[in-house]
Amino acid sequence: MPGAKDLVVAKLDATVANNFVKRLHYSGKVVSNSQVHLGVFYNERLEGVMQFGPSIDKAKSIGTVKDTPWHGFLELNRMAFSEKLPKNSESRAIGIAMRLFKKNAPHIKWIISYADGTQCGDGTIYRASGFKLIGIKKNNSMWRMPDGEVVCNLIFSPSVSGTAGPNNKKGQYGKTGTGSSIAFLKSVGAECLPGFQLKYIYFLDKEYEKKLAVPILPFSEIQKKNASMYRGTSRVGVNENSSAFLAEVDGSSPITRLQN
Question: Which residues, at least 6 apart from 116, have a Cβ–Cβ distance to it below 8 Å?
Answer without folding.
Answer: 142, 195, 197, 259, 260
